[in-house]
Specification:
Layout: H1 3-6, H2 10-15, E1 23-28, E2 32-33, H3 47-57, E3 63-67, E4 75-79, H4 81-89, E5 94-100, H5 104-117, H6 123-137, H7 141-148, H8 152-161, H9 166-174, H10 180-192, H11 195-203, H12 210-218, E6 221-225, H13 239-242, E7 250-253, E8 257-261, H14 265-282
Parallel strand pairs: 2-4, 3-5, 6-8
Antiparallel strand pairs: 1-5, 3-4, 7-8
Helix pairs in contact: 3-4, 5-6, 6-8, 7-8, 8-10, 10-11, 10-12
């Protein structure tokens, strides 16, 4: 590999390609423009803070650009758009750049990889960017998994987030659901037609973990209903002393849950203890 290619750093290592130009040079700001096809949707987040950092520390990492196919005197940003906006706000006339000579397909891949390496993409942005590669350039889930060093199942799951309807995305954003695995479960719930209940349970605090969400989608939710208040004379009585007074219980099956109903609070408490103790033993993945 040529010495020029060796200077490319982590992004070049992904592709191991001699065709990468890799030239480092300062380019006038008026010759650089943001890409029209950028994985990051919020391109101005944290720009003011970054500008302060540039002012104090200078540019620690060059931005990555490529020649504009329509105007060879111009460059399009592959990675580092926020650094570009921050430098522009400070009135910089030029900025250090690393130039990649790649086609449109490779440029978009590089932009995604750069952002993922820096953990700059939200789950929605990551899913949309990967879905764009899949649809625009006809990659399979397996090919995308190999490209980004992920398992095929991971890739299939993250792509499911891109299939959430705009209404579902809005609802998830309003509830501030930003956990990737939880969003995957939201996508599964919508596919099954259970998203409204899924979101209501999250809002009510009933689905607090990814495990809770998985159980919901598996239909393994168990609810124990009891009187709101246990009579004072029954609160301290051992279960054995109440056994002769047990009124019995019944099981009521609902859409994706089971309700255990009884008028006897002591019995319900024993059932609850049994569920908490025995279910994890018999079904460790629930």
């Amino acid at each position: 590999m040529s010495s020029k290619s060796k200077r490319l750093g982590s992004l070049a290592d992904v592709f191991k390609s001699e065709s990468l130009d890799g030239t480092m040079r300062k380019i006038r700001m008026d010759r650089i423009q943001p890409s029209t096809n950028q994985p990051r949707q919020d391109r101005t987040k944290g720009v003011s803070e970054l500008a302060e950092s540039l002012k104090k520390e200078g540019l620690l990492q060059p931005i990555v650009v490529a020649k504009d196919e329509k105007d060879e005197d111009k460059y399009r940003i592959i990675a580092g758009e926020r650094r570009y906006h921050a430098a522009t706000s400070l009135g910089w006339m030029e900025i250090e750049c690393k130039i990649f000579d790649r086609n449109e397909k490779e440029i978009y891949k590089l932009a995604i990889i750069e952002n993922l390496q820096r953990e700059d993409l939200s789950p929605f942005e990551e899913a949309d960017a990967l879905n764009h590669l899949k649809l625009e350039y006809k990659y399979t889930d397996s090919e995308l998994a190999d490209m980004f060093g992920k398992s095929r199942s991971y890739m299939t799951e993250i792509l499911s987030i891109a299939n959430l309807s705009p209404k579902a995305v809005k609802a998830c954003r309003e509830l501030e659901i930003d956990n990737k695995n939880l969003l995957v479960q939201a996508a599964q719930a919508e596919k099954k037609g259970n998203l409204p209940e899924f979101l209501e349970r999250i809002k009510a605090g009933e689905l607090k973990t990814v495990k809770d969400a998985k159980n919901f989608n598996k239909g393994l939710t168990i609810e124990v209903e009891a009187p709101k208040k246990i009579p004072a004379n029954e609160q301290t009585l051992p279960y054995e002393q109440k056994s002769s007074q047990i009124s019995g219980f019944r099981i009521q099956k609902k859409a994706d849950s089971v309700n255990i109903l009884s008028d006897d609070p002591i019995l319900l408490m024993e059932i609850y203890k049994f569920i908490k103790k025995e279910i994890p033993k018999k079904f460790p993945n629930t």
